Amino acid sequence: SQQGEEDPQALSIQEGENATMNCSYKTSINNLQWYRQNSGRGLVHLILIRSNEREKHSGRLRVTLDTSKKSSSLLITASRAADTASYFCATDANSGAGSYQLTFGKGTKLSVIP
Amino acid sequence: DTEVTQTPKHLVMGMTNKKSLKCEQHMGHRAMYWYKQKAKKPPELMFVYSYEKLSINESVPSRFSPECPNSSLLNLHLHALQPEDSALYLCASSQTVRNLQYFGPGTRLTVT
């Protein structure tokens, strides 16, 4: 099953607006992580939220987690052209003793227009 | 130093070649990872090393062979690859598994 599905797949906004991206998943998780990736380059970690946390902030970023709905959202406030990138959620799922599984969603491509 | 470095940046190899990708970090992280990313797709986990021991192998074909010589270095040995193996190969590290991962810039691999 696909873990970590982002919504929308693509988002285009004006500079200064807020951008919200959502992520849904299917199985229980240890934590959920958000990453950004500029075109063809490595990923940059943004925020990790643990399963017992509901909200975390980092600068202009706000992440929420609703384990009852198996969903998370990433809010970027006061967007800038430099925020243009693909954003991925990744779920660290419970996959058995001694094993580790981090599964990335398909990503949301954000375009911030100056 | 909060950087993960990968070499080479680009690699073109034939299907009969043997090559290696290298990854290095000096953050004292004890978990290191290899991912494969095809164009416009999310990264897919290939291997995880925890305390220099391979802890997961996601049913990756044997033509990919990982090696962790020490806690700072991670290699991916490539042999008899197929054109469909062309992708961006990303290395990452984290303090231990289940922590945020620091990614390198990747190696763009083309198999001809």
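qc> Chain B has no helices and eleven strands.
qc> done
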